[in-house]
Amino acid sequence: RNPVEEIGDLLGDYPETYFVVDAISCLGGDYVDIEAHNIDCIFTSTQKAFAMPPGLAVCTVSDAAYERELETDSASWYGGFQRCLDYYDRKGQTHSTPAIPLMLAYRKQMKHMLEEGHEARDRRHREMAEYTREWARKHFGLYPESGYESRTVTCVENTRGIDVAGTVEAVSEEYDMVFSSGYGSIGEESFRIGHMGEHTVESIRALTDAIEDVTGL
Predict the structure, then answer these.
(1) The whole model's pTM is what?
(2) Cβ-contact 102, 52 below 8 angstroms
(3) What is the CATH number assigned to the segment(s) 119-215?
C-alpha cells in the first residue's frame, strides 16, 4: 500500500500541485479521507472493491481540480470533467449514453455500502487482509516488502514451489473458486488472493482451505 495519507499531507504545503490517486483495486475496501488528505482526484472502477461487473469508471473531483480544468478550456469529450459536469448541471443527465443497467446496479451497491458504513466496511476488509496474510506467512510467505501490502489483495510468495497454474485450475474445477497466479515473469513465483467487495473472512477461509486441500498442505 502506498502512503497516500502522508503524500497528501505533504502536498497540503504545495497548493498549486494537484494530487491524483489511482485507487482501482482498493477504493471501497481501504478507507481514505479524501478531503483531509488533499486528494484532488481519486479513481476506481466497479469490478474491484465495489463488487460489481466491469464497465464503469468512478472518480471524485475537488473544486480546485475542476476550476483548473475550466481554466484550460478542455475540449475533450471523454477525457475531462468539464463536459460531463456541464451536462449534468444543465440537464441532469450524462453527456453520452451510459450503460444504464450498470448505473442502476451502481446506485444499489452505493446504498448497500452506505448502509454497511465506512467503519464497518473498513474493519471487514482489515480482518480479511489480516487473515490472508497470516495464512500466507504460515504456509508460504508474503511477496511484497513489509509495509507495502495491499488491503484488498495479498500477493503470496511461492516458497514451497507448488505448481501455481495447476493449483489455480484445480481449485477452480473442484471448488468453483478463483484466485490468480502472479504477473508475467513471477507467474510461478507468486500467486494472488483477492479479499475485497462482499467477501468475508469465512469466504476467504473457504478458498484457503481449498488451496490447502489441492496442494496437500
Answers:
(1) 0.88
(2) yes
(3) 3.90.1150.10
